[in-house]
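Progress against Task 2.4 (sequence-to-structure conversion) is shown through the following example record, which the project officer requested during the mid-term review.
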Amino acid sequence: MSEHENPEGVPQREHDQKVHQPASAAVGAPIPDSVRPVRRVGRRKDDPSQTEVEHTLTSAEPAGIHGGESYAESHEPNTKFAEFQVSALFVIAALGTLGFCAGYFGIDVHDRLGGPSNWALGGGLAVALMATGAGMILWAKKLVPHERAVQEREAFHSPEEEQLAAEETFLAGGRALQLHRPILRRSLLAALGLLPIPAVVLLRDLGPLPGLTLRKSGWKAGDKLVYPDTKQPVRLGDLDIGGIATVMPEGFTTPDEYPLAPTILIRFGPNEIQSAKEASWGYDNHVAYSKVCTHAGCPISLYEQQTHHLLCPCHQSTFQMNDDAKVIFGPAARPLPQMKIAVDEDGYFYCKEPYQVPVGPSFWERGGPE
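Structure tokens generated for the chain above:
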């Protein structure tokens, strides 16, 4: 009998095909573990001098090969569809990346506080990452040949005498520590038990949450606008056209008492205010806006009379002051809040209505809507 034939007279290659690919298996169906090729690796037990890794199969056939053709080739109809699925996912990932770039360059980050931009960037990146991951998983699941790898090793446990010696060494160390003495043992447990308490106590510094306090700027209806240095009220006509002044609410003691109260009063020339809302909230071409930048809370006072731009010195956020203080450059996400002002019978400016939106930087701890 030839060495390439089995006792039944069937050539070895044909016999292997019958062993590894039953006739009842559907094309493209997963290969059961009982007939899946086995690759044995590692040093043979009967030859300790062997140094090279031995690769053998129970059927003397390379792993993933059936009758001389690869696993993918023998399942061509199924792999063609799987190839189409994987390629489609990669195309979707590419489109997601292009969508991210289009959102970054094509959507204004200041539109509706950056909402559309965030959705476009996050959605594009999510589609790209998820489609890429799904494509790689499908590739490995349906296109990569599957096999079992078995590595024979010696027993991992130590000899019994070594285990006993290690146990005795551990117990001897415990006896040497004198843990059998009650006062030592109890004091040690007390010290270790109380040690985590400082970490728990320090968690108190994480709160309490500010609630609605960050919505209170310190202004209330009827407060006169006063100069911070002299605390004298601001009279209509004190500012020249193009002039700007920092004001505080009447009765304040120190600027630190009302950190969100600093306000800038600007006088425009006739017909320079472009926003009807801004003009109606002001008085005789005078408007009042928060001096606290909506990006990081820096005080703003760099005003350019010709362009009506107000520049934040910290991160260069620029606001168009004659058009609702809209952001035209920089990282600020929203305009400066405007305060309604009026003039009393004595000619002094006063707060007609406090700020209707939160003053200062935008962040989640504002405490929700009022």
